[in-house]
Amino acid sequence: MKNNKYLTIYEEMVEQIKNGTLKPNTKLPSENDLVEQYDTSRETVRKALTMLSQNGYIQKVRGKGSFVLDMTKFDFPISGLVSFKELAQKMGKPWKTIVNEFELIKPDDYLQKHLSVTGKDSVWKVLRSREMDGERIILDKDYFNKKYVPILTKEICEGSIYEYLEEDLQLKISFAKKEIYVEEPTEEDCRYIDLQDYNHVVVVKNFVYLEDASLFQYTESRHRLDKFRFVDFARRGH
Fold first, then answer.
1. Residue 61 has what pLDDT?
2. NCBIfam families given for it (predicted)?
3. 3-state DSSP percent of the chain in helix, strand and coil, to 5
4. Angle formed at CA 25 by CA 24 and CA 31, multiple of 5 degrees
């Protein structure tokens, strides 16, 4: 039973986080305080804290201690093509889009590769911070091939670009290929996302195609990692 003391501590703290006794973003007692509180060894306390961290209940911040994560994460469907406006409205949360950059550019080598364009083509570049409940939690970096989106304005980007593309331009957006990474934040992320003390972002790269299989959009959605749970439904084929 003694060997399982860390599980007892873990389960007790999970219950405190779930019932709100330990509130989101609050700092946990120090390791020394937990050793005294549970009358156990430092090794046992560390095992419990490691398990809490691995299962997404706390975030360890070097030099500052451990903090309780907000368990009310937003469900973000991996397999769907959902706009931020649609997601925010579904959740019933106050939201806002901030357009940080909007310009027509000549694509560099990276964009030429990811958007299947040449250096002679023109590409709309849109950088938008997505704010929910007063916090900027996503940075969307959108690139649209001007061949398919001849006109775009900052005002359209402040709303829903997809609404404009589908209703005004009558584009038939069909499917996307997605890649998901966890990366350290860039200077751009630090500037446009309220990262707090989080030292990683979840990056979802989208290659979006029209009904005729034309690649017209490349997007990098950069998410603060504590705010999202990426969900999908999978069925095994027989």
1. 79
2. trehalos_R_Bsub
3. 30, 35, 35
4. 105
In a domain, 178, yes or no: yes
Percentage of the chain with pLDDT > 90? 59
What's the pLDDT at 40?
92
- H-assigned helices in 40-160: 42-54, 84-91, 109-115, 154-158
- Using CB atoms within 10 Å of the CB of residue 83, give its burial: 0 to 12 exposed, 13 to 18 middle, 19+ buried: middle
d(CA 36, CA 41): 9
Assess whether 120 and 211 both reside in one domain: yes
- Nearest Cα neighbor of 49 from 16, 6, 18 is 6
Residues 188 and 150 in one domain: yes
* Domain region containing 53: 2-68
pLDDT band, residue 32 (cuts 50/70/90):
very high
pLDDT tens track for 126-145: 999 999 888 999 999 999 99
Q: Same structural domain for residues 57 and 101?
A: no
Among 65-74, 168-177, 189-198, 215-224, where is mean pLDDT lowest?
A: 65-74
Q: Which residues of 48-64 are buried (b: 16+ CB within 10 A; e: fewer)?
A: bbebbeeeebbbeeeee
The structural domain count of the chain equals 2
Task: Evaluate whether 80 touches 38 at the Cβ level (below 8 Å).
Answer: no
Tell me: do 98 and 54 sit in the same domain: no
- Tell me how far apart the alpha carbons of residues 59 and 39 are, in angstroms, rounded to a whole number: 24
